[in-house]
Amino acid sequence: MNSFSVKPLRSGSSGNLTLVEHAGTAILVDAGLPSQRGLSAALSEAGATWDDIDAVVVSHLHGDHIHPSAVACCARHEVPILLHERNLRAFSRRVLPRSPRSGPIRTFGDEAFAVGSIGVEPFPVPHDAEGQTSGFLLSARAGERESHVSIATDLGTGGNGLYERFVDSDLILIESNYDTGMLTKSHRNPADRARVDSDTGHLSNEQAGKFLVRVMQESRKLPRAVVLCHLSIDHNTPALATGTVGAILARHGYPDIPVHAARRDRPSPRFFAMEAGKRSIYNPGGTSKFPGGIP
Questions:
Q1: In sequence order, what are the residues at sequence separation of 6 or more whose Cβ sits closer than 8 angstroms to the Cβ of residue 190?
Q2: Residue 272, CA atoms < 13 Å, CB-side half-sphere
Q3: Which of 34, 93, 197, 281 is the most exposed place for a label (fewest CB within 10 A)?
Q4: How buried is 51 (Cβ within 10 angstroms: 0-12 exposed, 13-18 middle, 19+ buried)?
Q5: ∠ at Cα 95 (92, 99), nearest 5°?
Q6: 3-class SS at 147?
């Protein structure tokens, strides 16, 4: 059986780059590092090159998620950049003119699509980027089994039914940007702190934990792991993020779900949504009404 894996190569406000692989298909979710050399080095650290990449799927237009350096790399290697149709005009105005070259640009709407063997279902999340910010429900199939990965790395709130996109996922990557106490004591501009804490800013550790509890309560199977992403260098630490989220999950009856923090400046481990000989954990307390039963 082919594995379905996700490896965050960089995660944070200094740049985001996540490698997703299944059955010979490899995509990058976002490519926000500020140099072509840095992007190629990050891929090399994962044993990959630009020639291995089938597409870059862009969540939103902030520079730590898509950078002109990535546009140049994609053009050189003829890797298509996929972005939401609501972002094309701003991308053409703000990003393309800053790149020395441009390659294939393709748009997607609100409907699911596929890149090779990987299915991609975009969904809107609340964030203050121009145009639309998207999370992604990724899927892969091996025989009769289908596995899912839910990713949302920049969002101000987890409300409005967003949890439904994470129910029954085999692997969850979710933002856990700041610790409330550290943000409150920060020396940053008050307006910047208010923006981070707003419903279109970023998700706190506590918000991420409570969001995940709701997901688990509605799921018929538990994820193999939770990966916390986009941790603030000023207002968070990996220990605080994983400790807070893990404690919240444990208090609500989910003490055994592995909780990891994606690394800012180097590759994180490879996480598997599908792996030979291993299955997801059945959740007897789940009440999911959504498709995707127990494998």
A1: none
A2: 10
A3: 93
A4: exposed
A5: 110
A6: strand
- CATH number for the segment(s) 4-282: 3.60.15.10
Please list the residues that pair with 281 across neighbouring strands.
222
Q: Which residue has the tokens 């105005």?
A: 93
Per-residue pLDDT of the chain (295 residues; tens, 9 = 90+): 479 999 999 999 999 999 999 999 999 999 999 999 999 999 999 999 999 999 999 999 999 999 999 999 999 999 999 999 999 999 999 999 999 888 899 999 999 999 999 999 999 999 999 999 999 999 999 888 999 999 999 999 987 789 999 999 999 999 999 999 999 999 889 999 999 999 888 999 999 999 999 999 999 999 999 999 999 999 999 999 999 999 999 999 999 999 999 999 999 999 999 985 555 555 655 544 333 221 1
SS3 116: coil
Q: How far apart are the first and last CA of the chain?
A: 14
Question: Which residue reads 């590759």 in tokens?
Answer: 267
- The pTM (predicted TM-score) of the whole model is 0.92
Domain ranges, ordered by start, for the chain: 4-282
> What type of residue sits at position 28?
L
Token pair listed for 55: 């597409």
Residue 189 CB coordination number (10 Å): 9
